[in-house]
Design brief:
Layout lengths: L5 H15 L17 E5 L6 E3 L5 E5 L11 E7 L2 H5 L11 E2 L6 E2 L10 E9 L12 E5 L12 E2 L3 E8 L3 E11 L1 E6 L2 E2 L15 E8 L7 E10 L21 E10 L4 E5 L5 E3 L3 E5 L3 E5 L18 E2 L1 E2 L6 E4 L5 E7 L3 E6 L2 E18 L6 E7 L1 E2 L5 E2 L9 E5 L6 E3 L6 E9 L10 E8 L5 E5 L2 H15 L19 H14 L3 H14 L21 H4 L1 H13 L3 H19 L22 H22 L3 H22 E2 L4 E2 L4 H9 L5 H18 L10 H11 L3 H9 L6 H6 L28 H9 L2 E3 L6 E4 L9 E8 L2 E10 L2 E8 L4 E6 L9 E4 L2 E5 L2 E2 L6 E7 L2 E6 L2 E8 L2
Parallel strand pairs: 2-8, 14-23, 20-30, 38-42
Antiparallel strand pairs: 1-3, 3-6, 4-5, 4-7, 7-8, 9-22, 10-15, 10-18, 11-14, 11-16, 12-13, 12-15, 16-17, 18-21, 19-20, 24-33, 25-26, 26-31, 26-32, 26-33, 27-30, 27-32, 28-29, 34-39, 35-36, 37-38, 39-40, 40-41, 41-48, 42-47, 43-44, 43-48, 44-45, 46-47
Helix pairs in contact: 4-7, 4-16, 5-7, 7-8, 8-9, 9-10, 11-12, 11-13, 13-14
Bound molecules: beta-D-glucopyranose (BGC).
């Protein structure tokens, strides 16, 4: 069982030690065979508190000491108490040994889950030889408040600070707070903040849905006197009036909806709910808004207001607020948090009294100020992405957003302050009004966004690509603020749907987006009209209804990407009717099978493409996706209807847009031809000429530069790669002259720009806009070659592209089934490829080669797997090999492999 050598000897000693003291470690370190399942998730979340899905889905990752391993069965146990699990008893659900290879999306099917209950679960699996693993460590999940009648709370308002005292007659055994607000909250108990979320709850269409957050507050309340307080901010619910007429009715003030449930020793219970017995007052936050910033007058603080014993006789009674009207749902996604603290790289003093901090990175969040000075001194921080040559901040890219935080000092020593209810997109902070001269230590950058976990990494031998990858990731995460936003700095920051879908694949490869998009797709459903229409932005604040088809397509496409990346079939089921309604709406606009209406088309392109072509491309795409979903869900009649419709749209597309004389679509832009080719809308006999014209346009007319907007660029590089022109795709990716990603890098970008052009003046011109980042998916899928063949990577295809002078590329993805990685190196006559395939997955691995290579040999480790034109069986895990169009393609099971290809 144990290999006694070097490091494993100490493991053995540790093991013997545990046995000697009578306690066998839970994980059998060093044991061969199936390892205990790890990374247990419920509804994509780790140990979630407060979920409201009645049949939550479970996920686990497998590990095994051998290659080529699969799960052949599992046993899951769900218990109401953790002690039961230690005795291997699942009193809530234990289906016994289930013969199945499913290790993701396993839906709960036990006794009904009860409101407010915590459940514990663990799982073990059996491998291909029928060997059982040890059980995993226990994980847990907790239900939220499931029935509307359990809510005793009332919506209340009346001031931006609300408080209530309560007394508990006995020791606390368990306590939970359930909270939501119109606008933002900071919940406080006995003088302390509850939890770490900021800018919470997530932004929703409030009249449709309000998301409540559940906190375990067992350790924050106690027998005797207690106090709860809430600070409220306007958030998206109460927009400032000067931003023009809002599309949705704004609320006049933020409001609170809170319920605390406490269980005490001796079975006593207490429910405390927000109601008009609460007290309200205006606190030190004298103004707050997402675009404009926050002003905090520390002289107005009321010390002790959030603790028991505070004299609130001057406070008003809280008022009942009008309920927003939506349903209450559990917030089940990574919350917005302060993710990191950045130390400024530089401080300058361009004018007397003006200090400008450079954080060295464009980020979303705010600054923390450290200051001491006379009472009443107002220190103002203004935020900007750029500086002028004279060192003063350039705020032309943030349009009308005031992006200004002001702190008014108490005057009692060192004061540290950060705002609560605003955020900015910035690299530079201008400080004025500072008493004395600030130092680098007077300010810190606080990075704030939805706390999605990084799950992917990519690097290659070309530093330009690495720099692009870096700005993609920065741009992507700083634009996750409970919805995917277009930008984080100006008076916008909307869930623009076009931007959302073009970045979705890249985002899913770089970060764990499963719960985030599950929520966003529901947000989309919430804006859908009875006529099937959806809107340009979700929640709907900007733009039109119906959405531009290239924006509305986010609904079907993100659902589909969720299925591809995570194997999520439930999202397809839950949205099928909505998707169908959406497609049926589009159909009413396309009586002759061509969908022409368009507002933005291939937005921000260097060379414009007619919007009608872009809209019609997405009409075809949406119907195609719907037909696939219908087939998958066994709706055969619909599948047939939409497959037929698809064929009609295809024919009509060609008739409408093909210019036979020139051999191009519409006006012959890169986007027009690339879209047509990408979805195979080009009849066979025209494919050669259209591809040729696309090639000529890129190479000869534009010296291998892109001229597309953010729509075209999503498909151009994958299309070229697929059609055997990966070198050309790489040329586009690696360019450093205008227009290119490298051009942004050369010009100092630390996040992606909105425009290909370098513009520092007024007009639409954000310096943090993630939408051109779709190329990030191409890094993983084409250069490193990581692709899913079947949903959720059960079958995957590793097919890296060796291009031009690139000598290596490497990527890894933390998929729903575990780690996948692919790393290759290329030197003349030799290619190495290291691959990791998760347990319970299979991969088809295409070993990349030099174009003209012959007499190829492939070794895995020391053993030949391909020689003399033939597959050589015998290497563990490598089950087959073929030559496909000159490439050696191997079939491999799970495990780590090191391939080396040599040839002449
Ligand atoms: C946004 C875009 C968005 C567009 C719609 C802009 O103002 O920033 O990213 O997709 O409007 O055309």
């Amino acid at each position: 069982m144990f290999k006694v050598n070097g490091s494993s000897r100490s493991i053995l000693f540790a093991f013997l030690f545990f046995i000697a003291i009578g306690c066998v470690p839970h994980v059998a370190w060093g044991a061969d065979g199936p390892q205990p399942p790890a990374n247990l998730r419920c509804e994509y979340l780790s140990n979630p508190v407060g979920i409201d899905v009645k049949q939550p889905r479970f996920f686990w990752a497998l590990d095994h000491t051998e290659r080529g391993q699969k799960q052949t069965a599992y046993q899951i146990q769900v218990a109401t108490r953790s002690e039961l699990l230690t005795q291997d008893k699942g009193d809530q659900w234990d289906p016994g040994k289930v013969t199945s290879d499913q290790s993701t999306q396993v839906a709960y099917a036990g006794k009904p889950l009860e409101s407010g209950h915590t459940y514990f679960w663990k799982v073990r699996t059996w491998d291909s030889q029928g060997r059982a693993s040890a059980y995993s460590r226990a994980a847990q999940f907790e239900m939220g408040l499931l029935a509307p009648e359990e809510w005793k709370a009332q919506w209340i308002a009346g001031g931006n600070q609300l408080r209530k005292e309560f007394s508990l007659p006995a020791k606390v055994v368990r306590a939970r707070a359930y909270v939501t607000t119109l606008g933002y909250y900071e919940l406080r108990l006995n003088g302390q903040k509850v939890g770490e979320n900021v800018l919470d709850p997530a932004w929703t269409t409030y009249e449709k849905r309000n998301l409540y957050i559940t906190y375990d507050i067992t350790w924050q309340v106690h027998q005797g006197a207690n106090a709860v307080g809430a600070m409220l901010g306007n958030g998206w619910a109460v927009p400032p009036k000067h931003y023009g007429p809002p599309i949705v009715t704004p609320y006049s003030s933020p409001a609170l909806f809170l319920q605390i449930q406490i269980e005490m020793e001796g079975g006593k219970q207490l429910t405390l709910a927000s109601d008009t017995s609460w007290k309200a007052a205006q606190g030190p936050i004298t103004s707050d808004g997402i675009y404009d910033g926050e002003t905090y007058d520390a002289r107005l603080e009321a010390p002790g207001w959030d603790s028991p014993g505070f004299n609130d006789s001057s406070w008003q009674a809280a008022q009942a607020a009008k309920p927003p009207g939506g349903v209450l749902s559990a917030q089940m996604m990574p919350p917005i948090r302060v993710i990191d603290t950045l130390v400024p790289v530089k401080m300058t003093n361009p004018r007397p009294g003006v200090f400008v901090y450079d954080l060295g990175q464009n980020l979303s969040g705010w600054a923390e100020l450290r200051v001491s000075g006379p009472r009443g001194t107002a220190v103002t921080m203004r935020f900007a992405e750029l500086v002028y040559d004279d060192g003063m901040i350039n705020r032309e890219t943030i349009r009308r957003a005031k992006a200004r935080d002001t702190y008014i000092l108490r005057g009692d020593g060192l004061e540290t302050w950060e705002p609560r209810f605003t955020y900015h997109g910035f690299r530079y902070v201008e400080v004025t009004g500072f008493p004395g001269t600030p130092s680098l230590d007077s300010l810190r950058g606080r990075l704030v966004h939805s706390a999605v976990e990084p799950t992917g990494s990519f690097a290659a031998s070309n530093p330009t690509l690495n720099a692009i990858q870096k700005i993609i990731r920065w741009g992507q995460r700083t634009n996750l603020h409970s919805v995917p936003t277009d930008c984080d700095q100006r008076d916008e920051r909307m869930g623009w749907m076009g931007d959302a879908h073009v970045t979705a694949e890249e985002a899913m490869l770089n970060f764990d987006m499963a719960a985030f998009y599950t929520n966003f797709v529901r947000d989309i459903r919430d804006v859908q009209g009875t006529d099937g229409t959806i809107t340009d932005t979700v929640p709907h604040k900007y733009g039109s209804r119906p959405a531009d088809p290239a924006w509305g397509t986010a609904y079907p496409l993100i659902c589909w990407y969720m299925y591809e990346q995570y194997g999520d079939r439930r999202i397809l089921e839950e949205n099928y009717e909505g998707l169908k309604k959406y497609v049926e709406f589009l159909r009413t606009k396309a009586p002759d099978n061509v969908l022409r209406y368009s507002y933005y088309g291939d937005w921000v392109a260097v060379e414009k493409t007619p919007g009608a072509l872009v809209s019609d491309f997405y009409y075809y795409y949406d119907v195609q996706v719907l037909a696939k979903i219908a087939k998958l869900l066994g709706k055969s009649e619909d599948a047939q209807t939409y497959t037929q419709l698809n064929a009609q749209i295809k024919e009509a597309f060609h008739c409408e847009f093909y210019d036979a004389k020139r051999g191009v679509y519409a006006n012959g832009t890169q986007t027009a031809n690339a879209l047509a080719l990408f979805l195979d809308l080009v009849p066979k006999d025209a494919q050669g000429v259209v591809s040729g014209n696309l090639f000529n346009d890129i190479v000869y007319a534009h010296d291998s530069h892109v001229t597309t907007g953010f729509i075209g660029v999503k498909y151009l590089l994958p299309l070229l790669t697929r059609s055997g022109q990966a070198d050309l795709a790489y040329d586009l990716a690696a360019k450093t002259t205008y227009p290119s990603w490298g051009y942004m890098i050369e010009n100092g970008a630390t996040t992606l720009w909105e425009l290909w052009q370098k513009r520092l003046g007024p007009s639409m011109n954000s310096h943090n806009h993630p939408m051109m980042g779709s190329i990030g998916a191409w890094f993983y899928q084409a250069l490193a070659g990581i692709n899913e063949e079947t949903p959720g990577y059960e079958r995957l295809r590793i097919q890296p592209q060796i291009v031009r002078d690139l000598t290596w590329a490497s990527a890894s993805v933390e998929s729903v089934r575990g780690t996948i990685s692919s790393s290759w190196t290329h030197s003349p006559g030799m290619i190495t490829l290291d691959v990791v395939v998760p347990v319970n997955s299979f991969a088809t691995v295409t070993i990349p080669k030099e174009e003209e290579m012959t007499e190829m040999t492939v070794r895995e480790g020391e053993r030949a797997v391909w020689e003399n034109g033939k597959f050589v069986p015998g290497a563990p895990g490598v089950t087959g090999g073929r030559e496909i169009s000159g490439d050696i393609v191997l079939e491999v099971g799970s495990g780590r492999y090191s391939f080396k290809l040599t040839g002449r």
